[in-house]
């Protein structure tokens, strides 16, 4: 196992050294904590994460990987929310990160939790005893990209990890001498399971590049693959796109990618243009088209669900009007088409395409929700029986099950699974299903100044029904007139290419589009911030009626937070709109008083239970805004 800060130097552990250090930590943990207790792993990229993870498994503890608390408040709150949700017994970190972890625990009221520093632990590895574990024993809580107030920890067993790691190796045709490596953070399921676990269990080693080194200079990733003879690596589509755009001709000339056998592409929509451009760009360095392997997977399935091997990626131009009506078929000449990439065949799962409303299984050529069944489906969500039953306990209309409802939309065509979008993200505009990814990609592809930047599309209520809003990052120095021209051009592109009403295009600085740890845009959070007026736009091209409604919602939210703060004897700035109000001391008496204030101010009849069913200021604002808008329409 190697920790690479840059391609010119590295810190490494042999298998024997990793085993010895993991046993040492396990002895320390087992002497203080019971099997099954949870340990929060807070590390920068490096070998210490591997020591901590395997040390937890050696001690029978459940590892809870998490991003190290960063500078952004919402990220620190989310990590604290995970620590509380998992009811962790110990925090594990290293000397380099200890100061920041201790500051974070003090800030979040977690100072009472013991902290283990993996690189200073003293114990005799000879005292280690194998814990009593089975394949069903819980090994890992992999937290998905939930909100700050409602994190969801996927329960992954030892058997899940072993089965999925072996499935990954065999699916991509790799042997036990293949070396794995990459830049994905190890707290992410693709980095942890797809790289670290598969690399140490099924290969000849694992190499980890500091993710920030990749983000700063993408060619470092490719240079690591070349120098350390890495045959298998994984990345979201974003990573391959960054290499295509930012690796220079001089850097390309220094690379030998002929030994690269598995360029696994997953974790977000796989785009045909990205694949084609990467293959063309790095072909001169020896990269082979059949090494690019589109996949589909998710944490709830442990990781990999479907994959490809031994062929050039399959991209099919599909009929767009048919797609909007739930059909998946190749487009005839002259028909509007969208290129979809095949994500291969099942990797040991029973894969169904199901109507999300009737629960009937759909045949090949029809779009529906992707359901998965099999022994590598994870065990459910930690401490959340209701969500577990809804997501992991689905049955088809004819009684088959249980299945995992992925929330993803897709269909089969000629044996391959094609993912078309997220069910919950699908925008229904004038009776048509529009996928936000299509809108985002179309605008970036048609406007060079927006290429390679992030954007998010969503719908909001307009004067005549649902209308599309796009929040788009932009880089560079532009005059207000130029920004207005760019926003208007983007508006026209959406209207022309999709035939939908456009409520607004909002241009923001790079980094302003919120994303998950795996790089996916946080649509619901961005929609909320837009409606609440919390974006800081460089320019807004917005429908005046929509702007007025948004301003009223923002005023409602600010007023509500001020009332809550007044009753709780706090400053409005103390109230985090994403945290449950009960954490600040909200009780039934105060709730009734606030309800009365709302009724008096907006001439409404409000159920006092509304504040309990919508526990945060954000959620309560949304619910009240809906009531006010309904009253206005009457």
TrEMBL record:
Family: Belongs to the ATP-dependent AMP-binding enzyme family.
UniProtKB keywords: Fatty acid metabolism, Ligase, Lipid metabolism, Phosphopantetheine, Phosphoprotein
Listed SMART domains: PKS_PP, PKS_PP_betabranch
InterPro entries named among the record's database cross-references: ACP-like_sf, AMP-bd_C, AMP-bd_C_sf, AMP-binding_CS, AMP-dep_synth/lig_dom, ANL_N_sf, FAAL/FAAC, PKS_PP-bd
Pfam family, one: AMP-dom_DIP2-like
UniProt source species: Crossiella cryophila
Record-given protein name: Acyl-CoA synthetase (AMP-forming)/AMP-acid ligase II/acyl carrier protein
Gene3D superfamilies: 3.30.300.30, ACP-like (1.10.1200.10), N-terminal domain of ligase-like (3.40.50.12780)
GO cellular component: plasma membrane
GO biological process per UniProt: Actinobacterium-type cell wall biogenesis; fatty acid biosynthetic process
Domain Carrier: 551-628
